[in-house]
Design brief:
Number of strands: 0
Number of domains: 1
InterPro entries: Fatty_acid_desaturase-2 (IPR005067), Ferritin-like_SF (IPR009078), RNR-like (IPR012348)
Shape: globular
Protein name: Putative acyl-[acyl-carrier protein] desaturase
Radius of gyration: 21 Å
Pfam family, one: FA_desaturase_2
Family: Belongs to the fatty acid desaturase type 2 family.
Oligomer: single chain
Distance between the termini: 57 Å
GO molecular function: metal ion binding; stearoyl-[ACP] desaturase activity
Order of helices and strands: HHHHHHHHHHH
Structural class: mainly alpha
Helix content: over 70%
CATH architecture: Orthogonal Bundle
Length: 305
Amino acid sequence: MTNVQTALLHELEPIVEQNLNRHLKAAKPWLPHDYVPWSKGRDFAFLGGEDWVPEDSPLDPVAKAALLVNLLTEDNLPSYHREIATRFGRDGAWGSWVGQWTAEEGRHSIALRDYLVVTRGIDPVNLENMRMQHTIAGYDSGDKTPLQALAYVSFQELATRVSHRNTGKASGCPIADQLLARVALDENLHMVFYRNLMDAALDIAPDEAMCAIRDEVLGFSMPGMNMPGFQENALLIAKAGIYDLRIHHDDVVQPVLRFWKVFERDGFGPDGEQAREQIDGFLKMVDERATHYEEKAKARESVSA
């Protein structure tokens, strides 16, 4: 980490403390086991019951794919903890946040796995095999600077919130909808924390912050993209309108950029101005591509009608 990045983390620390205190007041503790319909559970063959068969699942293929992707993404928490602890450190307010965030995130995989296993929503053997494979591979964001990491998680936490919330609505199960709405609340509070810090970074180091935002807008990918079968499942999820390019553009990237007033701020040097222009050009291209996909989908619907 460069001296500039280290100095910036130090300068942001009072703002980290302020936002940590705000977060602790806003966050309402919850218990994962409260969101699991335990009365629907029964033993598997190992304990004298019956192993899972496809007919056990009450979920349609889209809900299965979305819940699987969401859960396996949450399963990589050890890697995510390493990523933010490495970037932000384990001392002071930064360290307190890293611990708080990790503990809160840990509830998500607990609750989702318990729900899916108890309701026999997806094959638990396949789920465990995929968890092992995905977690062993881990997640590595590369050599992101702390500013790039802040920009990335600002978008990623909101993307995860939207994905969880839309998955719950599409699941067809009121319990899953309730559980995923609760998980989405956590993700939203996490997004607000990171978004506020990046907003402060834009005031402190505008050019460096804008370049970091540019890097993460143009290079964004979900943390679970390397999991087995991600592309196939992502296509199902996109076609179902749970998370697609239009949602990413309209409901994730644009709201965060508006909060930061990216296109209204003054005080950028040549690097910051160039980064802002690159963001603007990229978003126009994404919007055009999303519109193209929407038109193709409408054409397919009209043919099949």
